[in-house]
Amino acid sequence: LLSLALLPLLYSPALSQALTGDQIKALFFNGKPFVASSTTRQRFTMVFTPDGKATREPLGKAGEKIDGTWKVVKEGFCTSWKGGTTNCYRLVTSTIAEGKWAVMKGATTVATWSKQQN
I need a labelling partner for 38 at 20 to 30 A (CA). Which of 26, 107, 112, 114 fits? Predict the structure, then answer.
C-alpha cells in the first residue's frame, strides 16, 4: 500500500534528471524547429539557433512571430523574448511520454517540448 502512495512521485518531472547544457544545445538549440505546448494548451513552433537567437511562432492561431535570445546556465537555460524579462528554466525528460521534455520553473511545469510536429 505504501508503494502505491509513492507512485505519483515516481512520475513527477521535478524528480526526473535535468538535462545538462550540452544536452539542451544538442537536442533543441541547434537551429531545428520543435513544438512547445504551454500549460494553457497554446502551441508554438520554436527555433533556437546556436548563436543564441530564438523565435517563437503560434501554431494554428493567428499571431505574431516573436524574436528572443537564449543562454545556457548551470541550472538549465534562460530565455528573453522581445518586450519581456529574462526567465530561467530546467529541462527534464518526461517520464510519461517518450519524445517529450518538461520545461520546469522551480517545481512547476510551465511547458512541454516535443520533437514531433503534430
Answer: 26
Q: Is the pTM of this model over 0.85?
A: no
Q: Which three cell numbers stand for residue 9?
A: 512521485
Question: What is the phi/psi pair of residue 98, to 5°?
Answer: -70, 140
Question: What tens digit of pLDDT does each residue of 2-36 get?
Answer: 444 433 444 444 446 899 999 999 999 999 999 99
Beta bridge partners of 89: 77
Q: CA 90 → CA 1, 5, 53, 75, distances in Å?
A: 32, 26, 18, 6
CA–CA separation, 118 vs 58, rounded Å?
Answer: 13
Burial zone of 89 (CB within 10 Å; 0-12 exposed, 13-18 middle, 19+ buried): buried
DSSP 13: G
In eight-state DSSP terms, residue 41 is: S
What's the CA dihedral at 74, 22, 78, 99 to 10 degrees?
A: -120
